[in-house]
């Protein structure tokens, strides 16, 4: 049983995201979970260690380029991702050197459903040879899904740790989450 309030967790995540939008950093901030224990003597009580498989694997910083229509271009610009439209693809027009540079510059490519069939026509086989053919994105993909992934990961990690404690939730004094350079938000205690 989890004593973690989903409303409090959602509010804390929203506040962290708002803070990261207001003050841009030159690096990707991580979300950290800080746990304060009470009535737990590390000399007497057994020490615990374990590993938990998170439902949504966090990705390391990767350089992504979006090849998209107007909607996806706007969304990519809002997220600070590099993006290209069909006109930029036409300028490349199978120039192998430019395609190789493009493949080296980015770790992955995302492309709108409407543009996927046109990519081989303008870029040739270069991206496919590099193993970086664009992944399909649709207009139904939401940014809110990423927020849900963070919430599920936090809930899973907290519940796993609490299950390792001798008195379960009675050993937890406080739980905080924060971004690397952001403010601390209490989610329990």
UniProtKB/TrEMBL annotation:
GO terms for biological process: translation. Keywords: Ribonucleoprotein, Ribosomal protein. GO terms for cellular component: large ribosomal subunit. The keyword Membrane does not apply. Pfam families: Ribosomal_L1 (PF00687). SUPFAM superfamilies: Ribosomal protein L1 (SSF56808). The keyword Ribonucleoprotein applies. GO terms for molecular function: RNA binding; structural constituent of ribosome. Belongs to the universal ribosomal protein uL1 family. This is Ribosomal protein. It comes from Eimeria praecox. The lineage of its organism: Eukaryota, Sar, Alveolata, Apicomplexa, Conoidasida.
């Amino acid at each position: 049983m989890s004593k973690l309030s989903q409303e409090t967790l959602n509010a804390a995540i929203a506040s962290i995201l708002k803070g990261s939008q207001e003050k841009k950093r030159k690096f990707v901030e991580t979300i950290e979970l800080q746990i304060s224990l009470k009535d737990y003597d590390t000399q007497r009580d057994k020490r615990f260690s374990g590993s938990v498989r998170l439902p949504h694997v966090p990705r390391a910083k990767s350089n992504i380029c979006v090849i998209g229509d107007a909607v996806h271009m706007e969304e990519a610009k809002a997220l600070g991702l590099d993006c290209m439209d069909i006109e930029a693809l036409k300028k490349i027009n199978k120039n192998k050197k430019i395609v190789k540079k493009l493949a080296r510059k980015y770790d992955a490519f995302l492309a709108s459903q409407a543009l996927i069939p046109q990519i081989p026509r303008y870029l040739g086989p270069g991206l496919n040879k590099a193993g970086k053919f664009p992944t399909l994105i649709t207009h139904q993909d939401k940014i809110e899904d990423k927020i849900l992934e963070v919430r599920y990961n936090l809930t899973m990690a907290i519940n796993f740790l609490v299950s390792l404690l001798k008195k379960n939730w009675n050993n937890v004094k406080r739980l905080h989450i924060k971004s690397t350079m952001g403010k601390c938000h209490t989610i329990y205690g």
